[in-house]
Each structure stands twice: as structure tokens, then as C-alpha cells.
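cron nightly-structures :: item 1 of 1
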Amino acid sequence: MSGYHRLLRGAGLCFVLAGILLATLTMAQAQPSRAESAASYFARGSEWQSRGEFDRAIADYGIAIIFDPRFAQAYFARARARIAKGEFEAALSDLNRRLELDPRHVAAYNKRGEIHLEIGHRDAALADFNRALELDPRFARAYLNRGAFKIHQGDYMGAVADFDRAIEIDKKYVAAYNNRGCARLAMGEHEGALADFNRAIKLDPRRVSAYGNRGKLCLVRGDYDGAIADYTRAIELSPRIVEHYNNRAKARYAKGDYEGALADYNQALALDPRYAEVYSNRGMIWLRMGRTAEAEADFNQSLALKPDMKDSLERRIKLLQAQLSMRNTQ
């Protein structure tokens, strides 16, 4: 082959290679990178999550992680979506991976602590809240959670101290005022508890739990009108919380409004037919009204659901029967 032909052949090969390179570059430009794909699916997952579409969010976060297995933010976001669905073990797995990728991520320790507290792993919860606060001593949410842990442990003074710190960091932290009120109520500090519940409600007039907690305080103090008002407002805001009907019924019963109390107990049982205490409470009204057959049926049902109530229920029945006997002899 002549040199001329070899030159032509070499030139042709160069043209072919250039064409292949150009095509490859064009395809690369047309297709997003793996990182871009991960970011795109993550953004769509975030949008689904904001709409409460947790299954779709979890699916998109999963695809984002396939494109980028070290996408730490996607693990954290997927954990939050799984928590919303009650999938705590799967959420723990995601948070563990998040912390493997970034061992100093404060929010991940705090969120993992919340799950541990929810499922009863209290030592692990405390360790996570402590670690979060070691990394960021101004992370108010961790103080709130550690305070809740201390309430569970009966350490009410310790809980108040943590809620104090959360409020120092954020003067408008509604949950911290509300929870500090609960700790103070447990300690018998009624005025302090009332101030905290009032502050929580002033900051957030739609905070259902604050009305419920203030209603509980009113019950303890014998302010039955105040309790009825607070539980009524709580029910208006969230009509499916059984305990609010049960407690409003107690206040109505204390005021002698037996029909109103019966209506509340009936509604409570419509929401939760297995609430043993409500059957026993309704039975007391039947007994007071002289309707012994209905009373006996409710007492039997309460014991069928919760046999360990037997001794306390018998004491309540004897006390009421004694009161009724004294009233009849007067």
C-alpha cells in the first residue's frame, strides 16, 4: 500500500473516531448525570411529602438513593416519611445510614432519639438526645425531647430544667411551655402550670393539647366549668380524641349533669369501644340513676377488657353505694 493510501486510511479512521467521540459527548449532554437524577427524584419526593403522599415520597427517595447511595439528605428525608407512616424500624435504618455518612448531623440524632422514645428504648433515646446537645447546645428540640423523656422517668424537676433551656433559646416555643406545664402539674405547682398552659394557648390558640392539659388542671382544682370549657374547645379543634370526651364527662358528672356526661361517655365509646375506664365511669352514672342492669353490664364489660381494675372498681362502687344510702336516709 502506498503512503498516499495509508494517509487516506489514517484520515478516515480519525474521522470515524471523531464521530464516535462527538456522538458520545452529545449523548452525555442529553442525559442527566446520576447526581442530577438523584437531585430530581429527591425534589419530587419532597413535594410528595409536603402533600402527605408518604408512599410516593418514600419511592422517590429510594430512587434518588439508587442513583447516589451516599445521598445523606435522602436517607434523612425518607426516615421522616417512614416515621409519618409508623414504620419505625425502617426509619431507624435510614437514620443509622445518615449518621454513618455524617456522624455530626444533630437533627438525625434527635430524630433517632424520638423514635427510640416512641418504641420504648429509653436508654438509647437519652443517649441520642445527649449527643445532639453535645454537638449543638442550642438545639431547642433536643431539650424538649429530653424533657419529655424525664417526665416519663418521673424526673419532673429535671424536665422543667430542660424546658426552661428550650424556652431560653426560643421564647415562643409553644410545645416547651405546654410540656413544662405538664411537669409542673405533676409536681403540684398549679399556678406555674396554669401560667404555662395560658402562654401556650396565647402563642397558638389552636394547640389542642394545651386546652386538654389546662382542662385537666381545672379538673384537679375543682373548676368544673373551666374544665368543660377547655375540653369543649379541644373537641371543637380535634373531635376524635377519646380522652377529651372522657374528661369532659367527669366534669359534667361532678356538676350533676348526668345526661351530658352520658352523652360524652357514649361518644367516647363510639370512638374507642375497648376503653375500659369509660365503661366503668358510665356504669357509675347508671348506678347513681338507679339503673342497675345497665350499670352491671358496663362494670362487667370494663373488667372483661381490663381485669386488673377489679379492686379499684369495687372500691368505687362501695363508696358510691354508701353515699347513695346516706342520701336516702336523710
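cron nightly-structures :: done
The chain is about 80% helix and 0% strand.
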